[in-house]
Design brief:
The chain has about 260 residues and is of the alpha/beta class. It contains ten helices and ten strands. The protein has a six-stranded parallel beta sheet. It has a four-stranded mixed beta sheet with strand order 1-4-2-3. Helix 5 packs parallel to helix 10. The termini are far apart.
Length: about 260
C-alpha cells in the first residue's frame, strides 16, 4: 500500500526552506550543490533513519567542512515538506543561484577564451523537460540556458532535482528570446533552430560558437525566432514518427555540436 504523505492544513506541502531561499531535494542535487559550491548551502534536513551510504558519507563530510547545520528528523517530517514528491531522505536549503545576463555570460566566455555555446528554450511548461535539458547541457559543456522572462517553467525544486546538479553547473538566464538572439548575433554567434521541416542535423555546420534554439513542447520555433536563425535543423526519424520530446531533441543536437567540435 502506498504511503500517504502528510500535508499542511491548506492541503499542500509546506516548504522547509525559508522565504527567498531554494529548496533542494534528493541526494544527487544536494551533493552537487555542496561539491560545486556555486552558492552556499545553509542547512540540511535528513531522515533520522538514513542508512550509511557512500554518497551520504560524502554529503556529511562536505557539509561538515562548510559548516552546514544538519538536522535529523522522522521521515514523515520530510514527507510533509517535499515539493517534488521524491526527497530520498534529504532536503537542503540553499541561497539562490547567481544571476547572469546573456551579455555577462558571453563576456565571461570570451574572457576565458572559449567559444560560447548557448541553448535557448522557448516556453517549456513541463518541469521534467527543462530539468532533463539542463542535465544534458551540463554534460555537453553548454555555457548557459536561456528561457523566457515569464513564459514557461523556471528553476523550480522539481527542475533542480531532475537536473541532478545541472542547475549548479549551467546558468539559467531569464531574458526575452528575440532580444537574446539579437545580442548573440551581434556577438557573431551562429544560431541554429530546431524544427520538423529543417535540414538533417548532420548536414549543418555546428562547430565553434553556437546557439541552439528550441520551441515548447507543443509547438516549434516561432516565425519571429526562425527569421533570426542561420539554419533550421531536424532529427531524421523512422516509422512515421513526426517528432521527439523537446528534451530528447535538445540532447541529440547538443551532442552533435560536441561531435562536430572534436
Amino acid at each position: 500500500m502506498a504511503k500517504t504523505r502528510t500535508r499542511s492544513n491548506s492541503g499542500g506541502p509546506r516548504p522547509w526552506a525559508r522565504r527567498g531561499m531554494d529548496q533542494l531535494e534528493g541526494r544527487n542535487v544536494v551533493f552537487e550543490a555542496l561539491s560545486r559550491a556555486v552558492r552556499p548551502v545553509t542547512r540540511i534536513l535528513m531522515d533520522e533513519r538514513t542508512r550509511p551510504h557512500p554518497k551520504i558519507d560524502r554529503i556529511l563530510t562536505l557539509a561538515s567542512e562548510a559548516g552546514v547545520t544538519i538536522q535529523r528528523a522522522p521521515r514523515e517530517r520530510l514527507d510533509a515538506h517535499t515539493l517534488t514528491g521524491v526527497h530520498n531522505g534529504i532536503i537542503a536549503e540553499a541561497e539562490p543561484l547567481p544571476e547572469w545576463t546573456v551579455t555577462s555570460r558571453l563576456n565571461d566566455c570570451f574572457d576565458r577564451g572559449e567559444d560560447p555555446f548557448f541553448v535557448l528554450v522557448d516556453e517549456v511548461n513541463y518541469e521534467h523537460n527543462l530539468g532533463a535539458i539542463l542535465r544534458s547541457a551540463m554534460g555537453a559543456g553548454v555555457h548557459a540556458i536561456v528561457i523566457p522572462t515569464r513564459r514557461g517553467k523556471g528553476i523550480t525544486p522539481v527542475v533542480q532535482r531532475v537536473a541532478m546538479g545541472g542547475a549548479e553547473a549551467v546558468p539559467v538566464i531569464r531574458e526575452g528570446i528575440p532580444a537574446s538572439l539579437k545580442v548573440l548575433r551581434r556577438a557573431g554567434i551562429r544560431i541554429v533552430g530546431a524544427d520538423m521541416d529543417g535540414q538533417d542535423l548532420w548536414d549543418v555546420p555546428m562547430s565553434g560558437s553556437l546557439a541552439l534554439v528550441f520551441g515548447g513542447e507543443d509547438k516549434g520555433v516561432t516565425h519571429t525566432v526562425r527569421d533570426r536563425c542561420d539554419a533550421i535543423v531536424s532529427v531524421p526519424l523512422s516509422h512515421g514518427l513526426d517528432s521527439l520530446n523537446v528534451s530528447v531533441t535538445a540532447g541529440i543536437l547538443m551532442y552533435e555540436k560536441v561531435r562536430q567540435s572534436r
